[in-house]
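Friendly challenge for the regulars: who can give me the structure tokens for this chain first? No prize, just bragging rights.
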Amino acid sequence: MTEYWFKPRRFGYGVTPITWQGWLVTVATLIVVVGSAMMVPQFADKTRWAFIIVPIDLLAIVALLIVSRLKTDGEWRWRWGGR
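First reply, four minutes later:
Bragging rights claimed.
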């Protein structure tokens, strides 16, 4: 049996972490995105390094979306508060 890490939100579109694994993946993605954003000023004069930071963010976000989709209990769709 698969243990789900996320559940669909009650209102709107998206999911919410419900286990420690879901929270870990979400916080790790946040740390990567914020950490790389804080590195941008250091690489401002070295443009080729600054362009490496954007793909790192994209990879982290895409990985979060893939993992959360695979580990969600239910489908992703717009919800108006009903069950």
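The CA atoms of residues 35 and 57 lie 10 Å apart. The two ends are 23 Å apart (CA to CA). Your move, everyone else.
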